């Protein structure tokens, strides 16, 4: 049957021989600029919606401040980074934070089962730093070339204009690395009670670089001082019946009454390198770093204390990008991070315009004012090279104009070697482990919600998808797969008899218990917020 199916091509008509991986220098090396297939795919994807965001269209935001402690894990922060925003204790850095859902349109309900965006713009003395993540600490996929496919599968059917469970699970069936994120999203953690009582995470792996040019791998996390609360499906449905903007209302009213939400900014740190001793690649954003081995180390506090004066001018025109880093924070070769770095800023140029960074909400603070030789473009209202040398809009010049900033005394130089090609990580044999461990970490009521949500979805799916999903879930945890099969009316033995996915390593034999004691996430096991409690907050 597969021989009769049309061959996938680029828009130029070239056959696509590998739609799973970007080209990179070796398995763990950086992606290359000549990834034409990926660039064509992702830049077209960035332009699929006019004018709202393709993803994260439904959102709200607030202003605030970040204040560094000056230490990381009890040691001077300068041991790990030269970023002033993280090492200068007590300095208050202005921030703007935008919270959002992912899949729904601009007016969709905030009770949707969906990851929540958590994007922060730090306006530091060294320029802007954008940290763009979500409320969960993992993602569905680990290679950015799959992002348009994933969003297409999760968005409404192009014919029926309805979100269809079979489309979601059809995509997941072929991407077992997504099972970990599915286990989170289909549990109560997929519907936070509000934005104030949810975690934030940068999700991707970055690097911290110190003034000696030494790098460490790092993950960024935000732990709410308000605690974590989530909703059951029934509670969310009850709220949605009379309020589709409950989370926006909750954040706005809390700030107006002076109840300023606060998060502790934490990092997980790992030495730079491949870490073959781990059963996962630390660059794989579908995996959590176990917190018993890589603890959350506090670095500062984030407080939101002012609502926008105008939602459109600030919240809707705010523009974030994962490539917006400050000196002392650097890229890793995380393939999702590398792909996002092109996509996010490219989206903003299309959605808001070539001069989106001249808007006050996006511009750096005054003492870090932009000074470039970039010119003109739609909606330009000033030119960066203002002053006596405004005639010189190029570099270098012996007559004046801008000059390059001095190089750091010890810069970071990553060594890269490998054959150029398309790679999947070789450490995929146990994409099932962390999903199973998460299932066993949940309390009884959380597991009940999870299996009921997944089982209810699978009832609406064709049999091939039902069987493959139960096969996947049974390999995560036998009880997980069995309970979902019972709820959906699926023959467990028929599902278990399926062969492994073609081209994917067979999952490891099911373990009866976790192999490491990942710290229980804050809020896990807490009884869900009642509808009365949520209503009382309003």
- Listing every helix as H and every strand as E from the N terminus to the C terminus, the arrangement reads EHEEEHEEEHHHEEEHHEEHEHEHHHHHH
Distance between the termini: 56 Å
Shape by Cα distribution? globular
Unreliable runs, pLDDT <50, ≥5 residues? 511-526, 530-538
> What is the CATH superfamily of the domain at 25-358?
Catalase core domain
List keywords for this structure.
alpha+beta; 15 helices; single chain; two-stranded antiparallel sheet; 538 residues; Catalase HpII,  Chain A, domain 1; 26% helix; disordered C terminus; globular; 10-stranded antiparallel β-sheet
List the helices and strands and how they pair.
Blueprint: E1 23-25, H1 36-46, E2 59-68, E3 71-72, E4 75-76, H2 84-87, E5 92-101, E6 116-124, E7 127-134, H3 147-154, H4 165-173, H5 179-185, E8 200-201, E9 206-209, E10 215-224, H6 233-240, H7 246-256, E11 262-271, E12 297-306, H8 311-316, E13 329-331, H9 335-351, E14 420-422, H10 433-441, H11 444-458, H12 463-476, H13 478-488, H14 492-496, H15 531-537
Antiparallel strand pairs: 1-14, 2-5, 2-12, 3-4, 5-6, 6-7, 8-10, 9-10, 9-13, 10-11, 11-12
Helix pairs in contact: 1-9, 3-4, 4-12, 5-10, 11-13, 12-13
